[in-house]
Amino acid sequence: WLDLEGKVAIVTGGASGIGLNISKELIKNGAKVVVADLNVEEGKQSDGSYFVKCNVTSKESVDQTVAKTVEIFGSVDILVNNAGVNLPRLLVDDKGEKPEYELSEKDFDFMVAVNQKGPYLFAQASAKEMLKQNKGVIINISSEAGQEGSAGQSCYSATKGAIIAFTRAWAKELGKHNIRVVAVAPGIIETTGLRTDAYNEALAYTRGVTVDGLATDYSKSIPLGREGKLTEIGDLVSYLASDRASYVTGTTLNISGGKSRG
Ligand code: NAD
Description:
Elements: E1 8-12, H1 17-28, E2 32-37, E3 43-44, E4 49-53, H2 59-73, E5 78-81, H3 105-133, E6 136-141, H4 144-148, H5 154-174, E7 179-186, H6 197-207, H7 214-220, H8 230-241, E8 252-255
The protein binds nicotinamide-adenine-dinucleotide.
Nicotinamide-adenine-dinucleotide (NAD) is lined by residues 12-13, 15-19, 37-39, 54-57, 82-86, 114, 141, 143, 186, 188-189, 191, 193-194.
Keywords: Oxidoreductase
Organism: Metabacillus herbersteinensis
Family: Belongs to the short-chain dehydrogenases/reductases (SDR) family.
């Protein structure tokens, strides 16, 4: 149904979590996938994917990844800007006891570089390839936090909001070249990658619950009563990447089990 046969996709941050699943779903639907991630060794895999070691914050690294994709597979038809980092911290440390709850300047710059500059660099390099064939799709992985704002995650929320603004602007710039640009805003998804002890501790603190109580707190806030499955994001991205979504551009699809409308 979602025929991606012959299409070439780049998935940033595709070595784990949501990105890994997006890569698998795209491959299942017939696409060839270049996984661009910091945490992989270069090389072809048997499942239709090729790994490129890439740092999305470096223009040189991004340009090399796009060039390598064209060299190996001949084009870039689909870009999924998925690599992201989230270091939940407060605007001000309101207790004063644990200064680590306040976001440092270094962490602010880090989040902006990965979540905001990275997608820009990748869209810029990929769109140049898409322009040559007058066709393409750019899918930006935002977050419910980027639509609603999330306590303790104001910098992360802002970077994810920026992705939504990029999506609207690029869709207007690139529509005349038959290039669609969409964003996906997941709610709480069953990943472990971002959930370090420090992440959980900071989130529990901002939500006024214990770390052990976080899962219950999440579920209570979701009308469907559970976290989202990785495959549910992969399915939506595959649909958006396919010609079935040929009139969908410039918009952000919220996928949060009803937690927010977006
Ligand atoms: P994850 O940590 O499991 O995966 C992120 C991947 O990005 C990792 O493989 C990591 O190596 C890679 N990465 C990080 N920095 C990079 C860089 N500079 N260059 C290249 N690769 C880099 O995270 P996830 O939970 O799968 O999140 C994926 C995306 O989904 C992120 O953009 C995140 O903000 C978004 N998101 C996640 C959730 C959730 O609940 N997990 C909710 C909403 C949005």
